[in-house]
Amino acid sequence: MNARTVIISPAPTANGDLHLGHIAGPFLAADVHTRYARAQGREVLLGTGFQDTSTFVVTTAHRRGVPPAELVANSAAQIEASLAALGIGIDGYTGDDDRFTKWVVDFIGRLHSAGKLELRTMKFPYSARTGQFLVDGFASGNCPECLADCCAGLCESCGRLVAAGELIGVRSTLDPEDPVELREADVLVLPVERYREQLRAHFEAHAAGIRPHMAQALASMLARPLPDFPVTYPISWGIPVPFPEVPGQVVNPNAEPMAWSMHASALAAEARGVAEGTEDALWLAGAGSEIVYFLGFDNIYPFAVSGPAMLLALGGTYELPTRYLTNEFYELDYRKFSTSRGHVIWSRELAAEVPRDLIRFHLAATSPEHQRTSFSRDALAQVTETRLVGPWNRVADQVNRWVGLGPLPVSERAIRAAARMDERFAASYELAGFSLNRAAEAITEQLARLDNHEVTGADAGDFCFEVDRLLRAAAPVLIDLAAQVFGSGPVPAPAVTGSFTPVALPRLRPAKAAR
Questions:
Q1: What's CA 79's distance to the chain center, in Å?
Q2: H helices within 92-211, ranges in order?
Q3: What is the Cα–Cα distance from 104 to 116, expressed in whole angstroms?
């Protein structure tokens, strides 16, 4: 086993707060696994942050009529506060500072110095009125591969790289009425095709670490030649590069992920006091780190194709990520979350009204692990009452009848039952079979089993012992309930003896349906 696990959840764009769709996918999953692994005594580092170099910052600021810098500052604080509101325990939180931007330029500069980047002439949409090239969020149209509506750069539907000049029906996002033409510009690219066979071999060797949709998409991408990946863009928004052949250009924000991930892991290590050294120390070959991503399917190209190709281009210096736990879109009432249309539920606002354990449980139960799922406030109230609040409160009331009467005897049958519960939860929490859905299902099933049991004096010890073990197993999801009983920090399993002394268990407050 590796000495440590480095977990990364890709940074959200600093163009707004986090809604439930963000939390239900990578962030809750990464937090739950981290809490579980630490309870097992393992070293785990969890990093994320925010990204302000994306062109979507500019387009959102334009739509809202605010300066981009103001939008970034507000969004960065909101994102961090929303993660905390839902109990997502981030170790390293990246931002926009000199240390980060210097590291990105240094990392890209090493590729440049090694001759791994090449000058290419590419076509980009261009606005003659503004005199600007339109890349990524500045240009929209239809994906040339799957035909879905998308912006340039990456297609959210099929996960592929979308060259701005190849968009079907391309238009300016900032001004759809602005006539757009194609013009050529010289940019630096990474010839990703040179690394295709190495990427394919790597992912074949680590097929168990990839969910089916991503595996299918990667197989399709890697079955044919890969296009050149633009590392620089002829625009002004982003991190400037010092390369003389592309004066005035910036780093493509989708070329930042490996440098950003290293920076996030370095910050996480420093926060936990477990490492010192360079930004990339935990990623070096032989460092003993397993690199794991919890991410949305729409992020697979920069984090699993072009990014690892950059690592390969540096000639074995780094370990490649081995696990990618992807998620699909989480919808609101069966429609995509949309800030611009007001179709959104903000994480912090919901956490101010509903106990966050209920939110975490419901998001786990409905997490879009393999297909799109949907949230509704009424479903949150109904599901949590039926599967969590009602059963837990009845079970807690039963346990509380025996508080102060222990220690109570515990049978071998109960000890075996507790061990089976632990195994079932472990199967949901371990990376090899990680599933928020199954973790929530295990909580539901075990609560229902205990709720249906009529406790007598003869088996009160068994019952209270099994409830205690269930709460310990559910602690990575039900963080506040566990903290009230066991205190803050990881909740390891206690030593098993033939007796158990019950402690008072708190009741859960129900969620209210939508008004």
A1: 13
A2: 98-113, 196-205
A3: 16
Secondary structure percentages of the chain, helix, strand, coil, to 5: 45, 20, 35
Integer-rounded Cα Rg, in Å, for the chain is 25
Distance CA 356, CA 344 (A): 18
Query: Would you call 423 exposed, middle or buried from its count of C-beta atoms within 10 A (0-12, 13-18, 19+)?
Result: exposed
Classify domain 4-105+254-332 by CATH number: 3.40.50.620
CB 364 within 8 A of CB 330: no
116-194+207-251: what CATH class? mainly beta
Distance CA 504, CA 358 (A): 20
Report the amino acid identity of residue 93.
Answer: Y
Res. 514 pLDDT band, cuts 50 70 90? low
Q: For residue 412, give the amino acid letter.
A: E
CA distances from 139 to 38, 166, 341 (A): 44, 11, 20
Compute the distance between CA of residue 165 and CA of residue 172 in angstroms, rounded to an integer: 12
Q: CA–CA separation, 468 vs 486, rounded Å?
A: 10
Distance of CA 109 to the CA centre of its chain: 28
Bridge partners of residue 240, in order along the sequence:
250
DSSP string over 241-286? ---TTSTT-EE-GGG-HHHHHHHHHHHHHHHHT---S-TTGGGBTT
Q: What is the pLDDT of residue 2?
A: 67
pLDDT, one tens digit per residue, over 182-235 is 999 999 999 999 999 999 999 999 999 999 999 999 999 999 999 999 999 999
Sign of CA pseudo-dihedral 139, 140, 144, 145:
positive
Among candidate residues 12, 62, 50, 237, the one with its CA nearest the CA of residue 134:
237
Asked if 152 contacts 140 with a C-beta cutoff of 8 angstroms, the reply is yes
Contact indicator for 500, 407 with CB cutoff of 8 Å: yes
**Alpha helix (H) residue ranges in 290-337:** 300-301, 307-313
- Residue 512: pLDDT over 90: no
Nearest CA to 414 out of 500, 493, 472 is that of: 500
Q: Tell me how far apart the alpha carbons of residues 444 and 320 are, in angstroms, rounded to a whole number.
A: 37
83 pLDDT more than 70:
yes
Task: Output the pTM of the full model.
Answer: 0.96
Question: Domain residue spans in the chain?
Answer: 4-105+254-332, 116-194+207-251, 354-500
Give the three-class secondary structure for 171.
strand
Which fold is adopted by the domain 354-500? Isoleucyl-tRNA Synthetase; Domain 1 (1.10.730)
Residues 6+ apart with CB under 8 A from 10: 26, 48, 257, 293, 295, 296, 299, 303
**For residue 268, how many C-alpha atoms fall within 13 Å in the half-sphere facing its CB?**
26
